[in-house]
């Protein structure tokens, strides 16, 4: 058994878990943060993407013990609180219908959040590159790409007098 200490979504947590516990299992089973999904068990799909110490990672590739001492943000932690408005990326996915079944959505949102930490390039190739570690089997990505642009424009409004097109397809 290993004691794992993390700051998860702004809350300090400490639990003893079996040594082989994956971070995704720790989040879902120990902390009951079920927004982080297990999709493929091979680190291919990105449904388990979270933010660990400021970096976007697939939580199925990290042991909980390896993350101990770190800071984790999950999709549940993007909002400032239960009564707070949605994060701009979460809002954009809803506004642009960037989800269907919703299974990949938390991982997509976490990858987009990481991509939008600084003003991004909004051409399709750059957005697709940012999302290449995430697989969606439902939407065909058109609305996901539009959601990225929508969130970017909300997060980085154009200066007064400048015009920015929302879609650059």
TrEMBL record:
| Keywords carried by this UniProt record | 2Fe-2S, Iron, Iron-sulfur, Metal-binding, Oxidoreductase
> Which parts of the chain span the membrane according to its record?
none
Q: Pfam families attached here?
A: Fer2, Fer2_2
Keyword Thylakoid part of the UniProt annotation: no
Q: What is this protein called?
A: Carbon-monoxide dehydrogenase small subunit
Q: Which residues form a coiled coil?
A: none
Q: What is the lineage of its organism?
A: Bacteria, Pseudomonadati, Pseudomonadota, Betaproteobacteria, Burkholderiales
Species in which this protein is naturally found: Paraburkholderia sartisoli
Q: Which residues form the 2Fe-2S ferredoxin-type domain?
A: 2-78
**PANTHER family, per database record:** OXIDOREDUCTASE WITH IRON-SULFUR SUBUNIT (PTHR44379:SF5)
Task: Say if the entry is tagged with keyword Iron.
Answer: yes
Q: Per its record, what are the GO molecular function terms?
A: 2 iron, 2 sulfur cluster binding; metal ion binding; oxidoreductase activity
């Amino acid at each position: 058994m290993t004691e794992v200490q993390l700051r998860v979504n702004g809350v300090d947590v400490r639990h003893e878990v079996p040594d082989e516990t994956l971070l995704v299992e720790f989040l879902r089973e120990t902390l009951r943060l079920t927004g982080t999904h297990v999709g493929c068990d091979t680190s291919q799909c990105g449904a388990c993407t979270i933010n660990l110490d400021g970096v976007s990672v697939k939580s199925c590739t990290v042991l909980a013990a390896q993350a101990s001492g770190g800071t984790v943000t999950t999709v549940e932690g993007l909002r400032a609180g239960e009564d707070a408005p949605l994060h701009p990326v979460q809002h954009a996915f809803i506004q642009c219908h960037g989800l269907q079944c919703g299974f990949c959505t938390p991982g997509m949102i976490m990858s987009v959040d990481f991509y939008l930490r600084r003003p991004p390039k909004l051409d399709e190739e750059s957005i697709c590159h940012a999302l290449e570690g995430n697989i969606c089997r439902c939407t065909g990505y058109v609305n996901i790409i539009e959601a990225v642009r929508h969130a970017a424009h909300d997060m980085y409004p154009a200066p007064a007098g400048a015009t920015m097109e929302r879609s650059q397809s």
